Amino acid sequence: MTVLPAKIAGVKEVIVCTPNASPEIIAACELCGVNQIFEVGGAMAIAAMAYGTETIPKVHKIVGPGNLYVSAAKKIVYGDVGIDFIAGPSEVVIIADKDANPTFVAADLIAQAEHDIASSAICITPSRELGSAVLLEIERMLQTLSTRETAKASLETRGAMIYVDSLQEAFAISNFLAPEHLEVQIEDLSLLTWIENAGSVFLGRFTPEAAGDYASGPNHVLPTGGMTAAQSGLSVRDFIKTPTVQRLSLPGIKAIAPTIIALAESEGLIGHAESIKVRLSC
User: Fold this and answer.
1) Residue pair 44/68 in contact by the 8 Å Cβ criterion
2) How far apart are CA 103 and CA 160, in angstroms?
3) Helix 42-51 to helix 68-77 angle, to the nearest 10 degrees?
4) What is the pLDDT of residue 90?
5) Quick one: which H or E segment has residue 15?
6) SS3 of 277, please?
7) Are 236 and 5 in contact (CB under 8 A)?
8) How buried is 212 (Cβ within 10 angstroms: 0-12 exposed, 13-18 middle, 19+ buried)?
9) pLDDT digit string (tens) for the chain, length 282 residues
10) What is the CB neighbour count within 10 angstroms for residue 271?
């Protein structure tokens, strides 16, 4: 998810740092065209890539999610090296109407909660009947889930079942939360025009967020903590620079000279104004 956008953008050298260079990871890196793999992770990997070591080269940009220490390290090195964004604990909001399948909703909330005790899994629905059924399904599923300790702690501290008076109110709350993942399990898909803030949107009952984690296509490196209100997930654009180019003729510089000189002198930047004036005598 981090390598392919870079390769498509034309990045010539890509390195991967991972604390566990398993055969599967090595094979994936080979398929994607990674130039070098280093078996190091955490804040140490971020520092190594940001400043370089005897074995790990200094890079121009570091992308990809990580734990709290990785995120803190990326924040510290930003300015010395480019980054994508600071990603926190994973999160999902599910908007479900009365016709949604409570088993599907419960399963998707649990799938999110098992990531981390700090993960957030929230369901917003105008149907109390649906909400009650979802809560019963969660209790049932947790009984046999091998990751129930983490999922249960996450749901108890960061989970929520929010009842609203209408689907419009549900979307308003979701836009306020600006979630990393938004599942929309409703029948009337014309209401999707109400979506303003979300990292990745999953439409319909057969599109679980876990599909996006592994296989369904769009990049899954996404901003969290409400930052989807300000930016999108990782894409080819993160690896493309767009410098601007200008070329003025003598008539052109003379045409805009009064504006430039007036603005420069109003700022007290006399050297700026003079750099224009010296060209006007040509």
Assistant:
1) no
2) 16
3) 20
4) 92
5) strand 15-17
6) helix
7) yes
8) buried
9) 999 999 999 999 999 999 999 999 999 999 999 999 999 999 999 999 999 999 999 999 999 988 889 999 999 999 999 999 998 899 999 999 999 999 999 999 999 999 999 999 999 999 999 999 999 999 999 999 999 999 999 999 999 999 999 999 999 999 999 999 999 999 888 899 999 999 999 999 999 999 999 999 788 999 999 999 999 999 999 999 999 999 999 999 999 999 999 999 999 999 999 999 999 988
10) 7
Going from the C-alpha of 26 to that of each of 29, 64, 212, 219, the distances in angstroms are 5, 17, 22, 20
Look up residue 146 and give its two tokens: 């091998």
> Does residue 253 contact residue 265 with C-beta atoms inside 8 Å?
no
Phi, psi (5° rounding) for residue 203? -100, 130
> For 204, left (φ over 0), alpha (ψ -120 to 50), or beta?
left
Residue recorded with tokens 């994508």: 84
* Residues with a known catalytic role: 180-181
Predicted TM-score of the model (pTM): 0.89
Total number of residues shown for the chain: 282
AA letter at 206: F
Nearest residue to 228 via CA among 194, 195, 183, 189: 195
Q: Are 91 and 111 in contact (CB under 8 A)?
A: no
Distance CA 257, CA 4 (A): 46
